[in-house]
Amino acid sequence: MGPKSITVTVTASERGLLEPLARAKTAPQRLVERCRIVLLSAEGWANETQADELGIDRQCVRRWRHRWATARPALDAAEQREASAKDLEKLIIGILTDDDR
User: Fold this and answer.
1) For 17-40, what is each residue's pLDDT tens digit?
2) Which of 61, 71, 78, 84 could disulfide-pair with 47, CB 3.0 to 4.6 Å?
3) Is the pLDDT of residue 44 over 70?
4) What is the mean pLDDT of the chain?
5) 3-state helix/strand/coil string of the chain
6) Res 99 pLDDT > 80
7) Distance CA 80, CA 19 (A)
8) Residue 99 vs residue 63, higher pLDDT
């Protein structure tokens, strides 16, 4: 058994944006997969269990779980300033998008 997974939290408004993205038929599959990782992480699923369920590598789950947790202050700030759903969705998509190489 490895180290304890990073705790992921998702607010109700974030969940309201992540769930449709995770089911979207026209969204890029990378984004859909990453939304599912965040949602499963928030439900308390272990990295290995998620990786098995999604058919991906544990390292991928760990990476996006960490990225979401690192972005938590920006997400909280957006909610504090009562950002619109569109602005919050842009922020979420930005967090779940690959960094430039």
Assistant:
1) 999 999 999 999 999 999 999 999
2) 61
3) yes
4) 93
5) CCCCCCCCCCCHHHHHHHHHHHHCCCCCHHHHHHHHHHHHHHCCCCHHHHHHHHCCCHHHHHHHHHHHHHCHHHHHHHHHCCCCHHHHHHHHHHHCCCCCC
6) no
7) 21
8) 63
**Radius of gyration from C-alpha coordinates of the chain:** 13
How would you label 50-68 residue by residue, b for 16+ Cβ within 10 Å and e otherwise? Answer: bbeeeeeebebbbebbebb
Instruction: Characterise 82 by phi-psi region: left (phi > 0), alpha (psi -120 to 50), beta (else).
Output: left
- Which tokens go with 20? 């449709």
pLDDT at 97: 93
* Residue 19, both tokens: 């769930």
